[in-house]
Amino acid sequence: MHGQMWPSPATAQASVLANDWLLFGTAGLAVAVIVWGLILFSVFRWRRKGQTEGPLPPQFDSNNPLEIAWTAIPLLIVLALFVYTYRAEADVERLAPKPDVIVDVNAYQWNWTFAYQGGPTVQGSFADPPQLVLPLGETVRIVLTSSDVDHAFWVPDFLFKRDAIPGHPTSFDLNPSKLGTYLGRCAEFCGFDHALMDFSVRVVSSSDFNRWRSAHHT
Amino acid sequence: MSPIAEQAVAPPGRSDLLGWLTSTDHKRIGTLYVITSLGFFLVAGALAVVMRTQLARPNSTLVSPHAFNQLFTLHGTAMIFLVVAPFAVGLANFLIPLQIGAPDMAFPRLNATSYWMFLFGGLTVFLGALTSEGAADSGWTAYAPLSEIKISTGLGQDMWIVGVFLVSVATILTAINFITTTFIYRAPGMTMWRIPIFAWEMVATSLLIFMAFPSLAAALLLLFVDRHLGGHAFDPSYGGNAVLWQHLFWFFGHPEVYVLILPYFGVVSEIIPVFSRKPIFGYTGLVIAAFAIAGLSMGVWAHHMFTTGAVDDPFFSFLSFMIAVPTGVKFFNWIGTMWRGSISLATPMLFCVGFLMNFLLGGVTGVMIASPPIDFHAEDSYFIVAHMHYVLGGGSLFAIFAALFFWWPKMFGVKLDERLGKLCFWLLFVGFNVTFFPMHLLGIEGMPRRVFTYPDVGSFPLLNSLATAGSYVMLAGVVAFAWNVVVSTRKRDPVGPDPWEANSLEWWTSSPPPEHNFDDLPPIRSARPVFDAHHPEIAKGGAG
Amino acid sequence: MMVALRLFISSAVFSSVIATAYWIFSKEPTGTFLLGVMSFGLLFVAGYTIVAEREADLVGDRPEARPVDAAGELVGTYSIRSPLPVWTALAVSCVGLGIVVSPAVAALGVVAMLIAGVLFILQSR
After folding, report:
1. Does residue B9 contact residue B431 with C-beta atoms inside 8 Å?
2. Is residue A88 domain-resident?
3. ipTM beyond 0.90?
4. Range of the domain at A137
5. Is C28 on the interface with B (CB under 8 A)?
6. Taking CB atoms and an 8 Å limit, are C88 and B116 in contact across chains?
7. Considering only alpha carbons, which residue of chain C is nearest residue B227?
8. pTM confidence score
């Protein structure tokens, strides 16, 4: 249920998000290694040996072409990253015109209600956290709200979270792409038992989903 | 003035309590700010060690959830409002008049009033812990409706509101004082383009305070009205708007992050040239970058709200990315300052190098989470905790220590011990990275922030134990610093006006400076008047 | 003062641009209002600087000025001791704390603030 250190993307959206992580992680690490290298190089290359002061080093204090270059190049990198991230976000947040399953999720201190439109409604208890059952490969619309304070719906293996804010319902789509059971939790601090406000998500095949749904229909 | 420190300056005596209570001398007020913020730092740091001890093992029951929630609320509130920001204010209070060659701040009595309001405000926040329901426990962000009276019924939350309000008013008053002093009270020849970078960074910081803090004050007032006067601004069950709190809070909160870092950009910009024996590289670029960061930071507040689904993500994402450019300029300028220099790794410089190394990682993860698709996973996880601490701990805190070691002789007339200083640096540097680097991984793996416990799954126990071990190493570093203060104070080894062969005007006068600051001034023809006076042979061709 | 003026004006222009852009992209009232108030505040400061400091000739702004050029100029007299700041801060804190703890403390704070105000006026004569 709890995956490995790096979550494996379990929805179509999560695959897009994982690519964003990969790109930014690589670019960030590359920049960091280069700049760390420059810092350590300067410190060790020009470190004063011994206690003698010696003559003053060259007293230069500016270099316009260089300064323009190190303003312009990061600017270009950042603009490229923005274009990429803009597209990725649009992909992830796109809402399907006709989702296959719609679930109204309500967060409250300190538990969750998953109300499938057309039934059933899943209620958990504190000892037995609720489970959100989702069909593989279909489009699931989550309509998220809260009935008391701010919470956040977070499934690490979906690489995604959304805040549940009272009076402010929001929607997003999930296209589960991998069978399995995943841990979900509240990410926005919500008071006393915030740390224990867990739920789980089980992704099953379409036919299993329909069987589960009719068995629990009330 | 002859550079001899034998001038009869009475050292701050223990019996002079009334003097400290009523002083309007900017140096005394600055020293009070610095000491007070270090006191709050010890308390807030101790709270953090208790939290890390609770989190060392899964399902630990050392502290209750209620106590844990108070711990991180007080830790965050104190570190941000009562440590990192006021230390900068204290340092600036002490330094700005000296650096620009002025006798005092523009409004000395207002200055003293600000300090005492800050102190009483900070104490009020902590006094909340003595009330029956304990201190505030809704986080330093106090998100409504969690902080509304229906949920947070305790008096502690009210005292938090009052305390933070007092601190924010005090900060606004101080900002006005800094801006006025720097613009009006400069010594003859000290044009704006010759003031030290630290003074410039404080002008940018003050401008930010001036624009951002009123929003916090307004939010706190509204919350108070909601709690006690029947308002419903943030209460959706009566038509209020919970997102409004986040807008008002982060409109202050993000510029606040730069209030917490810009002064420390100034600190390293002062220290690196001295220990590289070169002028600061790209003075103009650094100043422009400071104001670019300050300006952009006013338009990025909702990148803390990407996951609400209630804001225009691309707008905020774009401006957040843009901040990377001036920040990069600063980094390259610091490297340019060290380039081909004659570098001495004395303790202040060591802390500056530590600052550069740590802050860089905080900056890189900052660009990552400015991308909403990444933030969707990282937000409110330990990844954010790691990012924030790399900026404010690895960044600001390391610069605080750099500043303490660098300006301690000027403030107290004695140098801190170098060997203990290096020990302090290595303990803090290793401890810091062992504590906070694993938190990136914890966040990616799925650990939310502000949890009092976690299940025994995956690498949670291993990484958390590692982080806790690191926090003890940091604690040892802080003890080494305290021991250093005791040892160095006992030794009473007086220093001259300029123990580091530094550049700016505060190093012209005695250590500590007399009440009127200067007996005389050198001619000011560049950003390095003291260097010019000591090196007349190259002063003409030096930095302009 | 040219530098200060340029700084205030460019800040005001920049924040007006951000405020306008924000409204165009988001149509979100809270942030637009906050940015608008901020722009207005900066514009006010810039305007004030133009009016009040137009004639200002600061010795600190003259690049060739020598220390002796400031001699004889009255930069103000300072009493470096004053009990009023700590008194005022205590009074303000009593008002704040009193509001949430007890009205009596708040009343005490208000009285203390009034005394401080009177003393400030007397002292600045």
Report:
1. no
2. yes
3. yes
4. 101-216
5. yes
6. yes
7. C100
8. 0.94
